[in-house]
Structure formats: C-alpha cells, structure tokens
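Work Package 4 report. The design task specified in the project plan requires that, given a folded chain encoded as structure tokens, an amino acid be chosen for each position. We show below one input record used in the internal validation round.
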C-alpha cells in the first residue's frame, strides 16, 4: 500500500495495516496476502490472513502458506500441509515454489534427499525466472553433485 511504502504519502505502517485490513475484511485477496505479510510480528494473525488469501487462489500466498506450515511459523508445524500448499503453488506456476521444493529435495527436508529431483525442480524454477533456483542449480553443478 501507499502508506506501507511511503508512495505519495509519509510512510506510516500502522496506517497501512489499518487500510489493508479494511480491504481484506471486504474480501480483497491481495489485501489479505499483504496483511499476512505485514502481520509477521503477530505470527498467528499473519498466518490467518495468508491462509485466507491462499484459499481464495492467490498463488504467492499459497507458497508463503506452504513455508509457514513447513516451518511452523505462526502455526503448529505440519509438513504435509506445507507440502500440499507448496505443490499447489507450483501447479499454478509460482516460480519460487519450484526452487523451494528443489531445496527440500537437496537438503532432505521432508523428502528423502534426492539430487535428481532437486535438479529437476531447480531447472523448472530457473526456466520460470527464479534466480535462487538457478543459483542452487549452479552450486550443484560446481560441487559435482549429479
């Protein structure tokens, strides 16, 4: 929002949250997602707004919700729900989701470590423009992991 970034007005994060919350309560999905991001200091509230945006189809919110569930930030950790939301984000084409799933395979987080799967997910993320996925793919190749 303009208040959050100080675009055309003095930056005022409290005012930004106030107006964003009004829009979210009126059903604006982007406002729900942004309120989830703004409310990270109040993790539970941030989680709830992010979940509402994801349930309404916001792809970035789906990825963020997958991370929140998989790490337990703002909610009890639930790997299967985290994976489910991350997969949904990937199915909708979210470039970041591909990179995160690749990292999970590379690190053996939630999945058995599998370099071939990691490479596959990093390549897809890279093809979609995710710099982090490309970086991780480069690190894999430089390390000789195949």
């Amino acid at each position: 929002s303009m208040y959050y970034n100080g675009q055309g007005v003095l930056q005022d994060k409290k005012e930004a949250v106030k107006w964003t919350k009004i829009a979210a309560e009126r059903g604006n999905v982007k406002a729900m997602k942004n309120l989830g991001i703004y409310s990270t200091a109040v993790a539970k509230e941030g989680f709830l707004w992010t979940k509402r945006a994801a349930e309404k189809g916001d792809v970035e919110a789906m990825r963020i919700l997958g991370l929140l569930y998989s790490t337990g930030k703002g909610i009890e950790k639930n790997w299967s729900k985290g994976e489910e939301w991350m997969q949904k984000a990937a199915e909708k084409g979210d470039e970041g989701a591909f990179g995160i799933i690749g990292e999970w395979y590379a690190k053996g987080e939630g999945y058995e470590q599998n370099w071939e799967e990691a490479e596959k997910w990093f390549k897809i993320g890279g093809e979609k423009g995710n710099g982090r996925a490309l970086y991780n793919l480069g690190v894999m190749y430089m390390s000789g992991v195949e």
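The CA atoms of residues 13 and 117 lie 41 Å apart. Validation will be extended to a larger panel in the next phase.
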